[in-house]
Design a protein that fits this description.
By secondary structure, the chain is mostly beta strands. The chain has helices spanning 77-83, 96-105, 112-115, 124-128, 144-150, and strands at 21-26, 42-47, 53-59, 67-69, 88-90, 109-110, 120-122, 137-140, 181-182, 185-189, 194-200, 205-212, 217-220, 231-232, 234-238, 242-244, 258-260, 264-274, 277-284, 293-295.
Amino acid sequence: NRNLLTGLYTLTDEAVGKRPVAIMVNNIPAAMPQYGIDKAEVVFEIPVEGHQTRLMCLFGDYTQIPQVCSVRSCRKYFPAIALGFGAVYVNFGQNPVVTSYVDSLGIIQYDSSPYGASLFIRDQERLNAGYAREHTLYFDGPKFPEATVKHKTNMNLPEDKVATAFKFPEDAEEQITPNGEECKEVYIDFGANESGFTYNEETKTYFKTFYNSKKKEIEPQVDGKSGIQFEFKNVIVLHTPVAYDDTAVYKSDGSKHRLINWQGGKDCEAYYISNGVKQRIYWEKATEKDSLKCFQ
């Protein structure tokens, strides 16, 4: 019952040997605070249009997914990364250019159709609170196992994805510290958004902040239901080229979708950050179906 995303022995019996689930979540101030993503084992934060970011939250146990809000649309590079984990990909909406690409991947995808109101639901409390409609959609995770049966979804992990996503110690309680320099604070500037992580000596985790471009302030990033600040045991910063996607017409460069080099390479730097220390590493992902690899 080892969770392949964390190395911890936490899976329910039903989830052993089954696919993780990757859910697209909006990450702009107007959509905050999100909820449900504090239960994700791995979170990718990647640039999108407007110099903002979007999150892809991976859940290792498909029977334990909470309600997750606010769910948004697909960008081409997210399913390419999700496929490397053998994950089911969950999003709400995508443009035709993206659709043809996602279809070519053969990834299992839960989009707005044909699942509709059975899994994607408007949060009435958020609507009443004045959130724009596009920031009110949640994925009803507790209903997902039933949906996989109804729609005959193949939840069995592919044979090449049954190993852990990263190298973990056999003893789940063992603390691994990178070989490098002290690192108590991390800031990644995406343009309109700045993602920050501050190390806590007591919990030995990094607490997340974000730059609220509306208020011009750095704020704790918290769960919208519990009010608890997001925290992470490990932070991995991947350096990669980012360009504009010119396959469609946009009002301005700022509104253009991005092209992210998700393949990396042996010369693409990264930082592995844990236990208050950072270590320079490298990363690559050969094809969409290959796993993401980090190495010294």
